[in-house]
Structure formats: structure tokens, C-alpha cells
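Attaching the record inline, Q. Sequence:
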Amino acid sequence: MQHHPSRARQRFFLVLSCALLLSPLSALAQQQPKPAAPATVPTPSNAPAAKPATAAAPPAAEIFANAVRAAGGADLIRSQKSQTLKGTLEMPGQGLKGTIVTRSNDPDQLLIETDIPGFGKILQGVRGTVGWSVDPLRGPSIMDKDELARTVRDLAIDKTIDPAKDCDSVVVDGEATFAGTKCWKVTLTCDGIRSTRYYAQDKHHMVGQSTTVKSALGEFEVTTTFSDFGTFDGRTIPKKTTNSMMGQEQVMTITEASFAPIEPSVFALPAEIQALTQGGAGTSKGAAPKATPKDASKDAPKSAPKGSTQGTP
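Structure, as predicted:
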């Protein structure tokens, strides 16, 4: 499991993909992009194939607990209040490749910085009560309150440890195969948003997720694949994340990961966002994080997910 919200990644992918689809051809002429796909939701090549359950599925609480232990343990995750990830971002279909850095402080600070030659720099962040983004095409914009609430909720460490926290329903659908891996399929409905997760039966990591995200262009299904797991400072995370949407594919590859404390000033609102918020009214509940202990016990979540059930909805 990652202390970096998959929902924020999906929203970032949506912002980037829409910007590229709407971008003038002259801005990307040197990159020779492929024609934009129709505004439909195709079936990605890694789309999950559901299978009838052949064995009794474990309860959701057990699936989540196993994933937490595989990641390094709940105590270790709770101790890592900050996270910095550095790597590359590539959109093969558009011929684009750049760098990406994501930083986060629990519970409500996030900054994603991407630099793509031929397109420019894209920023996305959360600071307390303000969620925002800045890209070369649309300029500065503010996240709506519902999206902000969902992003902050998924950014919290407690949500990383217990994905079902405060959700309306959690259903274990049985077995499924995702990207060639035999998984347990779990469907969550939180704040009216339905998402499906796929947890490997052998190594217990979450290897896939499918959810619907909203944008100015409508609603789109985003399928995310997590792979190439590696360990940094005792924490096991996927080094490769692949998002698929609207016939587009985005690949993020992590080359560096750190859980050292990050000063809250890193998440200060850019001047153009301050102007939109009438002086930067965003406040933050988070204080400067403490250093990560070298030794931390590896335990399971202490509470079972709310509304956990088994079987087909």
C-alpha cells in the first residue's frame, strides 16, 4: 500500500490527459502524437476478467490486513507521516516522457510536480482547505469541495491502513484475474463513488484498481495497474503505476522514495492560486512531521472495515 492517494493520481492523470487532448497540435508537433481516441470507454488490455469463486473468499478486513503487513506493517505506515517519490512519467501513445515528483504530509498536504518537454510544467496540490492545479493550457484552477474532500480523505494514513474507513459499503466479490494475477476482488462505495480493487492472493499487494472519475469532459473509467514492487526504508510500494483511460496510457516509474519529514512550507499555495482564493485562505491541520523510527513493529489494522460483507452485491 502507498501513502500516496491513488485517487489523486487518477485525478492528475485526468488533468494531464484532458490537457493533452485539448492542446493545439502546434504545441505537440515535435512529439508526433496519435489522433485522439473517441470519447468512449474502451476495455484496456489489462482489464480484469471476473471468475466464479472457487474457494471461500476471506472477509475484507483480512484482505486489507494482509496488504498492510505486506507493505511493512501498520506501525511503520503510521510512523511515516511524509513521503517523497521521484521518477518518470510517460504517455507512449503521445510520444511524451518527463519527470514527476510527488510529496505528501499526513493528513492534508500534497504536491505533484511534473515537467514534460514539449508541453510544460504541471502542478497539482492540496493544502488544508484548498485543492488546486496549474497547467500550461488551462492555467490555475481550484478543486471543487467534493473532490477535495475525497482527495484529503484518501490522503490520510488511516485510510491507507483501512481503505473501508467511513465507506458506505464494502463487498468482497470473490476471485478475479487482474493482469495475469489471481486476486480477491473488493468493491467499495464511499461518498457515492464506486471503486473496485484487486488484491493478489499470493503476495497480498493491491495490484489493480478501477474507478470512475469526473472532469469537465464528463465521467471516465480509469483502470490502474500497480507492479514491480520494491522496498524503501522498510516500506514496500509499487515502483510502476500504469493508468489507462480513453484509449490513453500513462506510466509512472518510481526511481527514488523517501519518508523523511517535509517542511509544511513546501506546500505553500502558488501566487496565482492565492489570488483565486483571495489571499490564500487555505489552512492546514498538519504540523511538521516527526522523523521516521528505524524500527517499527508490523501489525495489522486494529479495527475491521465498516460495513464489510462477502458475496456478490
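The chain has one domain: 6-27+42-256. The longest strand covers residues 218-232.

More tomorrow.
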